[in-house]
Amino acid sequence: xxxxxxxxxxxxxxALKRAGYALSHEMLKDxxxxxxxxxxVYRVLNRFCEDGKVHKIIGDDGKxxxxxCNNCTITENNHSHNHFHFRCLAxxxxxxxxxxxxxxxxxxxxxxxxxxxxxxxxxxxx
Length: 126
Known about the structure:
Layout: H1 7-19, E1 23-24, H2 25-29, H3 38-51, E2 54-58, E3 64-68, E4 73-75, E5 78-80, E6 83-88, E7 94-100, E8 116-120
Parallel strand pairs: 6-8
Antiparallel strand pairs: 1-3, 2-3, 4-5, 6-7
C-alpha cells in the first residue's frame, strides 16, 4: 500500500538517517519540530516498522529504540533482524552490530522474533 508522505514522516526519517544509530522516542523528539505530537511520532515509527524502513529494539532499560533497516528480513507477516544491538552505558547511544547471527531452533519451533542486547562502553567513551 502506498502511503502519503507528510512533513512528520519526512522529519522523523531525516532525523533517523542523520543520527546513524537507533533513537528512542525522547531522543527523536529533541531532533524534530516540537509541534509534532507524541502520538504522531509513535504512529509514524510503527508505520515505518510495518513498511520495513525501521526496526524496533527493546532495550535493557525497557525503552523502545528505532533504527533504520539495512539487513532486515521482511516477509508478509514478519519483520525480523538477526543481529545484536549495543547500548553505551556512558553516552546512551544504541547501535546495530553488523555481525549476523544464526538461530537454530528445535524441530517444530517457529521463529517470530529476536531481541539481542549488549551493554558496555562504545569506542568514543572508552
